[in-house]
Design a protein that fits this description.
Blueprint (H helix, E strand, L loop, with lengths): L6 H8 L23 H7 L19 H12 L5 H18 L9 H12 L4 H20 L26 H12 L6 H12 L3 H5 L6 E3 L5 E5 L15 E4 L9 H13 L10 H17 L11 H12 L4 H8 L17 H15 L2
Antiparallel strand pairs: 1-2, 2-3
Length: about 375
């Protein structure tokens, strides 16, 4: 049995597998651009209170709310709708906390206080993500002449940010597949859980699969094509598009039964394979399926995403080349490309790799 209790070391070593300034537009004018004498610029380059600048007298405060509006007017078009919604929400929270603070004269202490207020009701990892959005706004402000200095460097927490998600050991993976296989062949829940086990796909990637995304290549290898072609589909980034082979028999996965499900969906005119939405799928698999399947072996923190940790950990333990593992998990580098996308690692190579991997992992 391969136990993956070492997954925290795996996360550190294989980073991305476990967990992503253009100024071509004219600068948006916000009052007069201040000119700082050389000795005052030096003052701003320290973590101390900058000396008062007479050029700022009479100017309305450049608050985070104002700078956020300028930033989004320039950059909103570069973000996906879901990302933009998250950005606007975070900016609103930050703006409420910073209030009328004039960012032209902000100090390191101002941002440290912001961080302390955020972490009072949030996990350090969540606060770090919010601070990244603060940094994006402040750095955009400097690049576009609104700010001279930003004190956002090394603000993020380095302790207490470990993911609460765990990895399944191989016995637990077998229990999950056994639970899935007991569900009806016509139930999407069966295939949601099974595909997560044998591909390491993200919950949203599996949930948005279409009938056309299940493909049989000329070599006979059956793959799922993870992509964002189609209404409402979205992937994490461009490197997430990939074709992952389906390994018949992995932990008991029944490929022919899955293909019958796909064909039934096609015959009834369904585009999507899922019978329930992404949110409902997450609630079912995390709150019901996994606890029920594992019984007394269940530990809080074991969720659908833990399947990615487990597969990454298994690949590392068995010496799978990092570039091959990246290709499976959706963190492929520019040199790792599947069949129709150009030269690189052939999908058949990945298929053989997974067959050998699961043959060992299932024992």
């Amino acid at each position: 049995m391969l136990n993956t209790d070492h997954h925290h070391d795996t996360q550190r070593l294989w980073g991305g597998l476990y967990a992503d300034v253009d100024t071509r537009r004219p600068m948006l004018n916000y009052g007069a651009s201040p000119t700082y004498p050389e000795h005052e610029v030096e003052s701003l380059n320290t973590n101390t209170e900058p000396a008062p600048n007479p050029c700022l007298v009479g100017l309305a405060p450049l608050t985070f709310e104002v700078l956020s509006r300028l930033y989004l007017a320039d950059r909103a078009g570069e973000q996906k709708p879901t990302t933009l919604s998250s950005t606007r929400f975070t900016h609103g929270v930050i703006g409420n906390i910073l209030g009328e603070l004039d960012l032209r004269t902000h100090t390191r202490e101002d941002l440290v206080t912001l961080r302390e207020q955020l972490v009072m009701t949030r996990k350090p990892s969540t606060v770090n993500q919010m601070l990244m959005k603060v940094s994006a706004v402040l750095n955009w402000g400097m690049n576009n002449g609104h700010l001279v200095k930003a004190f956002d460097k090394k603000l993020k927490f380095t302790k207490g940010v470990e993911s609460a998600r765990r990895a399944f050991n191989q016995d637990q993976i077998g229990m999950l597949m056994d639970h899935a296989s007991r569900l009806p062949e016509h139930s999407w829940k069966r295939w949601l859980l099974s595909l997560g086990i044998v591909t390491g796909g993200r919950l949203n990637e599996i949930s948005q699969l279409c009938v056309s995304d299940i493909q049989t290549l000329e070599s006979g290898v059956v793959v799922i094509h993870i992509n964002e072609f189609g209404e409402g589909k979205s992937i994490k980034n461009k490197r997430s598009e990939r074709k992952v082979p389906l390994t018949d028999g992995a932990y008991g996965f029944d490929l022919q039964a899955f293909l019958r499900y796909v064909e039934t969906s096609r015959l009834r005119g369904s585009v999507s394979l899922a019978q329930i939405g992404y949110r409902s799928a997450g609630e079912w698999v995390n709150q019901q399926a996994i606890p029920q399947a594992l019984g007394e072996c269940y530990i809080k923190g074991l969720v659908f995403h833990s399947l990615r940790h487990s597969l990454a950990s298994l690949m590392q333990a068995k010496g799978v080349p990092l570039t091959h593992a990246q290709a499976v998990m959706g963190h492929a580098s520019g040199t790792v490309i599947f069949d129709t996308y150009g030269s690189g690692v052939p999908v058949e190579t990945i298929a053989n790799l997974l067959e050998d991997l699961f043959a060992v992992g299932s024992k």
